[in-house]
Amino acid sequence: TRGGSRPQVLKYALSHVSSVADKAFRQEVVGLVRDAYAASPPSLEREAALASCALRGGDAGRCAEVVERLLQNTNEEGVLLAYQICLDVVEGGDGGFVARVAKILLDAPKSEEEDAAMTKKRDLVKGILRDGMVVSLHLSFLHKHSNSDRLVMENLRKTLDERSGGGGRSSVLHHCAVVAHAYLNAGTTRDGFLRDNLDWMRRASNWAKFSATASMGVLHAGHTSESMTLLEPYFPSPDAASSTTGGYAEGGSLYALGLIHSPAGCSASPRAAAADFIRTHLRASHANEAISHGAALGAGLCAMGSRDLELVHELKELLYTDSAVAGEAAGIAIGLVLEPYFPS
To answer: What positions does the domain 26S proteasome non-ATPase regulatory subunit 1/RPN2 N-terminal occupy (predicted)?
Structure first.
């Protein structure tokens, strides 16, 4: 950087700050770069840098301020930059950070003098931050451009059947095949193999059954509009929640529901409905550790980064029970809910 101009030095520092290993020092550098940019003359490059600093520092307020200034801009490039920053918030942030930026931008009192053009801009921002536009685009892209070969899974299934003695099963290999299928088709909504091989899927038992049901959440991640319909056959009944045995498929379905609604930028209303549904089962299922395990993980995923202390309290109640299985999931879920936003 010797001999470089001030803008070049700042740009270099911002682009390499992620290589700083110490988090406290990294945040200090981000703060210094932000202050330097804030003192520089107004420009789109300055606004983009300020937004980047806010993202890296987890400062939802400053990020929203930059977007608001750009939306007020009469320059089309400034408005487009505002949309790009919103996209970056969804791509790089957790659900809690996205929700905080959206709340500041969309829930604050608006001036009565706002014209139709400004209302249209805010509607697009709402679509990006709250209505799942980015997730829908990802889902559509993955579905249309999936190159997964179903024949791979068909051959794998036949090989496992032959190895297990023609109709028997090897629980470990069967479980591995189910997980492989989930990875192969993650986010594509392509579950035709599972639907056509239900008898083969039913061979799973105990925690393998939990994982097999949860794999539906991997396949349909972000597919919030149909999540309840897809998983309804597996949801816990009142009898299952109060039983001390079984419940593996039911617990897996709650975990799958959380996985479907976990991507940042998912539609806010379906996510809230799913979170309430899971928490209802979380409160009622303490007697069944498999269902409690799935409910805790699902609740943590739906509320990831939200800092919802009421949910943390509910999870602590599960954590303090004598069940190691349910307690493990509760501990993980608390970490998800209280996850701080400090991207590298």
So the answer is: 8-144
pLDDT at 343 over 50: no
End-to-end CA distance of the chain: 22
Residues 6+ positions from 13 with CB-CB distance below 8 Å:
29, 33
The residues, any chain, with a CB within 8 Å of residue 99's CB and separated by 6 or more, are 268, 306
Residue 274 neighbours by CB distance under 10 Å:
25
CA 270 to chain centre: 13
- Condensed to tens digits (0 to 9), the pLDDT of residues 130-148 reads 988 999 999 999 999 998 8
**Phi–psi pair at 296, nearest 5 degrees:** -65, -45
The answer to whether the CB of 303 falls within 8 A of the CB of 336 is: yes
Measure the CA–CA gap between 292 and 283, rounded to whole angstroms: 9
DSSP letters for 245-278: S--HHHHHHHHHHHHHT-STT--HHHHHHHHHHH
